[in-house]
Design goal:
By secondary structure, this protein is an alpha+beta fold. It has 12 helices and 33 strands.
Length: 594
């Protein structure tokens, strides 16, 4: 049949070629082109699919004359670029598609004497290619629903082409990256350094594979250390300075405290060559360490060993919000309250009220809140702390106003947290906030210790109190700069539980101020990163010392000529595992939703 049709086509072409052609011109111009492309009995379709791993496509067709085939995309190679009249074979080599997106191209076959090319499409994957195993489709649909409805920069999400077969972490990242591709509209969702995004604030966590378990107590030594050389020269003593010890952890039970100096681990001296591996061992516990007291005298460290060696185990413990509170008696007789607050968690709000009751009972005159390692938590807890500070005089004042995306705002949605009021955007009322009024200190000013780790709900306290004209005297280094918050949703799928926290609102104070994405610059700038740590809440700690001076005298102290010059040390770069106690802390300004 094919040969018969071929003969008919050839005869048709010959007959056409023998027909007289009448033209109005007397010149020797070329004959006019025939309409169409002339190709018949082609085996290809309008759209032709190629395997993702690459393929060689072969198609036969009848050509009325000589022809050429071209393609502009280099992943689609013409193995037969031309042919003659009659039965022809078109061979196309398609390269493997190693990208995330599907692709297509067109092949043009131009026959001599015809006005139009014959066009066929080669397609390799339709839309976004499925790269995953599809296990988390249900969760990914849930993520998309929340993101497209609540994400602060949700406008472009419906335009994204997404792969629902990916694991839930990669799927979420693909949405965030997709939105960022639109002129970086979600710039405020994440921490930046040197013009590069370090991470997204939006996150999901689960006890499903690829993520750590939710709500599981930490199991390690409970110690945060930094590798330190006791001086400015490389030949000075090397070891680990203890930055903090979590209350109730194995290290705490063995009497390890901030400011201790660890010189050996399992009888191995700490050096610049082995500190990262030894530091990981200290963090993971079940090690024997030698502890030393350190005192600087005229810039020279005096190291006093404590004996015997200490065995620090590894056990489960829960990281609390309140690490320490105390009342310091200033030289002029003032009672100054000190609170080391490490995270805003509603589970510890009742304990926080109890601490403020103690402050009231001890008639404190001033208050220092140490937030240097507090990277946030629940908005409700931040509002409660604001209430404990500001008191009844500010009852009903706006502490924070939450500004949502354009569609939610157009629908009239706005959230407000107010001093001393139970009503809030996330539940039917939080009774501990009005209860906190009876324990509040009614202060017109406070002193806050901050750093680059001070973020989100911690920055809410600074911004919220300043919005009510409570003086917040900030001491330390510039805060993190997280002026956005997240709503949290929980979902159970099979045996796994998922907690999802997308960025969904800006945080404004009563004055409408929210532009602190670059952080709050301290009123008294003090960088203690290269100063040997002293015990929290005492004058041996540089930042606490300045806060006590300021609180007791009411005059901002000078930093020139301080003892800091005598306590200089050289801090070595920590490994990721050594930084775990700091980086694992839950951050953000969190609202919980059903």
């Amino acid at each position: 049949m094919l040969k018969s049709n071929m003969l008919k086509s050839i005869l048709m072409v010959l007959c056409i070629g023998l027909m007289p052609v009448f033209v109005s011109s007397c010149s020797d111009d070329e004959e006019p082109l025939l309409e169409g492309h002339g190709i018949v009995e082609a085996e290809w379709s309008d759209v032709n699919d190629a395997d993702l791993d690459g393929a060689t496509l072969v198609y036969e067709f009848m050509a009325p004359a000589a022809w050429t085939a071209t393609c502009s995309d280099d992943w689609c190679i013409m193995m037969t670029e031309s042919g003659v009249a009659g039965l022809s074979s078109l061979r196309i080599k398609v390269a493997p598609n190693e990208g995330q997106y599907g692709r297509s191209t067109t092949v043009n076959i131009q026959t001599e004497g015809y006005s139009e090319p014959c066009v066929l499409t080669i397609r390799q994957g339709e839309g976004f290619l499925e790269k995953g195993d599809g296990v988390y489709r249900e969760i990914n649909n849930w993520i998309y629903d929340r993101m497209s409805t609540y994400y602060l920069w949700n406008e472009k999400i419906p335009e994204l082409t997404l792969d629902y077969s990916l694991d839930y972490q990669r799927f979420l990242t693909s949405i965030l990256d997709g939105v960022a591709a639109y002129d970086d509209v979600n710039h405020d969702d994440g921490a930046w350094a040197n013009g590069s995004r370090q991470n997204y604030y939006t996150y999901i966590e689960s006890n499903a594979p690829i993520s750590r378990a939710v709500g599981t107590p930490y199991t390690d030594s409970g110690i945060m250390i930094t590798a330190t050389i006791l001086g400015t020269s490389d030949d000075a003593p090397c070891g680990f300075a203890v930055l903090w010890v979590t209350p109730g952890s194995p290290a705490d039970k063995e009497g390890v405290k901030r400011g201790d100096f660890i010189s050996t681990v399992n009888k191995i001296a700490v050096t610049q060559n082995n500190y990262q591996s030894l530091g990981s061992q200290v963090f993971n516990g079940n090690v024997t360490i030698d502890l030393n007291d350190v005192e600087f005298v005229n810039g020279v460290p005096k190291i006093t060993p404590r004996v015997p060696s200490v065995l620090v185990g590894k056990d489960s413990y829960v990281d609390p919000s309140i690490y320490k509170w105390d009342v310091v008696k200033a030289p002029n007789g003032k009672n100054i309250g000190y609170l080391l607050y490490m995270g805003f968690h509603t589970a510890y709000d009742k304990q926080l009220i109890d601490v403020f009751n103690e402050f009231k009972a001890k008639n404190i005159d001033e208050l220092i809140i140490d937030l240097r390692y507090n990277n946030g938590g629940h908005v409700l807890s931040s509002t409660l702390l604001g209430t404990l500070v500001a008191g009844a005089a500010h009852t009903g004042d706006i502490y924070v106003r939450t500004i949502y995306n354009a569609s939610r705002t157009a629908a009239g949605e706005v959230g407000e947290y107010r001093i001393g009021e139970a009503a809030n955007p996330e539940n039917n009322g939080y009774s501990l906030i009005p209860e906190a009024l009876t324990s509040s200190l009614n202060l017109s000013q406070i002193y806050v210790i901050g750093s680059g780790s001070t973020a989100s709900a911690s920055e809410l306290l600074i911004n919220g109190l300043r919005g009510m004209d409570v003086d917040v005297n900030l001491i330390g280094t510039t805060t993190h700069g997280k002026n956005v918050g997240m709503e949290g949703w929980m979902k159970t799928a099979g045996n796994y539980q998922f907690l999802f926290y997308p960025i969904t609102f800006y945080c404004e104070n009563a004055k409408g101020f929210r532009d602190y994405s670059e952080g709050f610059i301290p009123d008294l700038i003090v960088d203690d990163s290269n100063i040997y740590p002293g015990e929290f809440g005492t004058t041996r700690d540089l930042l606490t010392n300045y806060a006590i001076q300021w609180a007791s005298t009411g005059v901002k102290p000078e930093t020139k000529g301080s003892r800091a010059a005598d306590d200089n040390v050289k801090v070595l770069k920590s490994s990721a595992e050594m930084m775990t106690p700091l980086t694992r802390k839950v951050g953000g300004s969190i609202m919980m939703r059903n």
